[in-house]
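Thread: quick sanity check before group meeting

JM: Hey all, I'm pulling together slides for Thursday and realized we never actually wrote out the predicted structure for the chain we discussed last week. Dropping the sequence here so it's in one place. If anyone has concerns about the input, flag it before I start.
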Amino acid sequence: MLSKLRRFADLPPIEQALLLQLTALSLGLRVALSSVPLHLVASFISRAASSSRLGRILVPHAHCATDRLVALADMAAAVSHRNSRCLPRTLLLFWLLRARGQPVSICLGVSKNQTQLEGHAWVEQGGVLLGDTFSSVNRYALMFRWPA
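JM (edit): ok, ran it. Output follows.
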């Protein structure tokens, strides 16, 4: 816990503010994803990001490089979704980049690992993975891309 607080304290103030906002949104996603179908959550996020008011909720995001947004979204998702955090991280990153007007897609893939079915979510922008590596995504068969 202390190391997490130190990492937070080492962030620039603008990233601290953004991380706090993303953590609150991630907690909201945890509730939403437990009661609302994913396509409705993704649709809301997409509309909200392009809305003049809701898209500007995360004020400091315009001042951060994309790789920093990926890291901050991952940190925020880790707080409220300890294990399976790829979906909330993907949704947060999708919101941030759509609010910037960037064309990005949410991708969902599945993989059968012996007797278990596993899923993974990631963000792509023009065929480029954001926040993931090809080696981690290659083992999943793409089942869904939104928007297509």
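AS: nice. The helical segments are 2-10, 13-35, 38-50, 66-80, 86-99, 134-137. DSSP finds six helices and four strands in the chain.
JM: adding both to the slides.
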